[in-house]
Amino acid sequence: MAAPQRMVPPPPADDEDEPEVTRASVERERRRKQQLEAQAAKKTMTRRSWYTEASVADAFQRAVDDIHHSTRVPKHEVVAALLEAAVAQADRVQRKLGKGDASHG
Amino acid sequence: MAHGEVDVYGALKGGVGKTRIAVLAALRQALVAGEDVHLVDGDRVSQTASDWRKDYERATGREFPVTVTRHPFDDIDELISDLRGKHDRVIADIGGGDPAVFTAALTYAQRLVVPIGADPSEMRRLPSTWKAAQLAAADSAVGGFNAWVLLSRTDHGTTLPREYRELLTSGKNPETGDALPVYPLLKAEMRKRVAYQRAYGTVPGEFYDVPSVLEEIGVIKTGAEAA
């Protein structure tokens, strides 16, 4: 049976001149920067909701799940890529929907 | 109520088998040991533990035997603090290169298991994971934790598992003679098995290597219950 490594908090004021303190502070600073970057990235994100047919929403969800599982790309990126693809088709969709009677204008 | 135990399966690298051992350990403790287990999915990138539950419930229409909460955020320690007051065991699946979530998850941990594959690319992140764990121990609210390394997805059709076991425990590089850190490597391994791949999205009836791991880290008390 492998003995574990016991990781414990250091005794108070016992690490003042240890080189680990310097490394730890560098690591803390790196983590702080990473957190700030993550927070900055979050600011560009948004949550929206749309009212639509359940079958279409389910199909969209399945597409997101399938791509996520096969690529391991985070789901928010998969959703963004699918929405970008949809936006690229907006003109075609507009022409298709415009064949009926216009409800606006 | 006494606080439940907190076990963290984590590494600062994705794809090392954290979720597999975390979910199977949670299921094993819930189904075999009869514990009330709460699994926290703290993987910011892949959320596989959460998807495992969803896919099981979607496919079977039945409730997953373990509650799963997705929370890959820096305040995961607050969630775990709350959950350990309500459940026998909290298991956290943490990973994917996020030191802030990793260290926060260890605040109330009794155990840390770092799964690692026996190949150079996976070994490269072990020192940084270990260092992050040591930093986390400094902020432990429960006086620290026991930590182990677990060889994951080992293929004994090759010599790699034996070579890396030597590399992790001998204290020196066999080729260069350079000194290396000695890691507390579990004797138990998570072997590469098709059964594990098929286990995703299911509640398997067999847990293969998982009981050996749980026994070695003291979750299963020796002789108290059989797997």
Task: Describe the fold and architecture.
Chain A has 105 residues and is mainly alpha-helical. Chain A has a domain of 26 residues. Helices cover 63% and strands 3% of the residues of chain A. Chain A is built from four helices and one strand, in the order βαααα. In chain A, helix 2 packs across helix 3. The model of chain A has no long low-confidence stretch (mean pLDDT 80). With 227 residues, chain B is an alpha/beta fold. Chain B has one domain: Rossmann fold (3-Layer(aba) Sandwich). Chain B contains nine helices and seven strands; from the N terminus they run βαβαβαβαβααβαβαα. Chain B has a seven-stranded parallel sheet, with helices on both faces. In chain B, strand 6, helix 7 and strand 7 form a beta-alpha-beta unit. The two termini of chain B are 27 Å apart. The model of chain B has no long low-confidence stretch (mean pLDDT 90). Chains A and B meet through strand 1, helix 1 and helix 2 of A and helix 4, helix 6 and strand 6 of B.
Helices of chain B, by number, come to 9
Helix content of chain B: 25-40%
- Structural category of chain B is alpha/beta
Distance between the termini of chain B: 27 Å
How would you characterize the largest beta sheet of chain B?
7 strands, parallel
CATH topology name of chain B, in short, is Rossmann fold
The CATH architecture category of chain B equals 3-Layer(aba) Sandwich
Structural Rg of chain B: 17 Å
CATH superfamily of chain B: P-loop containing nucleotide triphosphate hydrolases
Average of per-residue pLDDT values of chain B: 90
Oligomer: heterodimer
What composes the largest sheet of chain A?
none
